[in-house]
Amino acid sequence: MPKAIFIDTTRCTACRGCQVACKEWKNFPAVPTKQRGTHQNPPDLTHYNFKLVRFSEHLEGDVVQWYFFPDQCRHCLEPPCKEASTVDGAIIRDDATGAVIYTEKSSKEDLETVRSACPYNIPRQDPVTKRLVKCDMCIDRVRANLLPMCVKSCAMGAMNFGNREDMLKLAGERLEAVKKEFPKASLLNQDDVSVIYLVADLPAKYHEFAVAGVSGSMTRKQMLARIFAPVRKIGQQVRG
Ligand code: SF4
Ligand code: SF4
């Protein structure tokens, strides 16, 4: 039965437990980074970070809103990266779960061809093996009836995993609950992907590639004004 992950960003506290748990399960090393004046670290997905909790701020009136977005491969139902693939067997979709998996043969792929096909800017490349890499839904764990590590690690209930049908039902219920306080709340691309996000505000405010082709960057004037503004985490008030 197809599986899905439901990511309820209204419950996310940006603890980054999912990000670290992913690295630990994959046995990826820590990589030195610089403090860039943001909670988001590292700056982007890498071949050692298949999961990244994105952090952005936007000024609404005189209040700064915080937006948290645990970014990862969406495991598309009809993956554009697979359609762009030029190497047989390099990118496969697991029939049982719907997980999109990059195999060792992906080292023969052209990164830019595959990456530019992805609406969410996900694929990365291992600089040593040249293999293309990204989240594989912890397929080893899922086949052993275990939760993906990111889901297992989330103490807030932001990460959920199960049969697609059940996840869609849960996502719909949470959307209804959240909409009472946040009328702009929506589910992102739920008919096209196996990783379904609930956001409380416009998707572009969370991440440029939350939905393809929309930019959510902050203006310079807004950036300066935020320094003096009170802070509110979007969606955090909603429980149910
Ligand atoms: Fe491929 Fe991108 Fe879809 Fe993941 S999100 S399956 S990398 S197209
Ligand atoms: Fe958010 Fe849960 Fe990940 Fe923590 S573990 S950053 S609460 S999704």
Task: Provide a descriptive summary of the structure in words.
The chain has 240 residues and is α+β, with helices and mostly antiparallel strands. The chain folds into two domains: 3-75 and 138-205, Alpha-Beta Plaits (2-Layer Sandwich), CATH 3.30.70.20; 80-137 and 220-229, Alpha-Beta Plaits (2-Layer Sandwich), CATH 3.30.70.20. It is 23% helix and 21% strand. The chain contains seven helices and eleven strands. The protein has helices at 17-26, 80-84, 111-117, 139-143, 149-153, 164-179, 220-226, and strands spanning 3-8, 52-60, 63-71, 91-93, 100-102, 124-125, 132-133, 159-163, 186-188, 195-199, 231-233. The strands form four sheets. The chain has a four-stranded mixed β-sheet. Strands 2-3-11 form a three-stranded mixed β-sheet. Strands 4-5 form a two-stranded antiparallel ribbon. The longest helix is centred in the last third of the chain and has 16 residues, at 164-179. Residues 213-224 have low confidence and may be disordered. The structure holds iron/sulfur cluster (2 copies). Residues 12-18, 53, 70, 153-154, 156, 158-159 line the site of one iron/sulfur cluster (SF4).
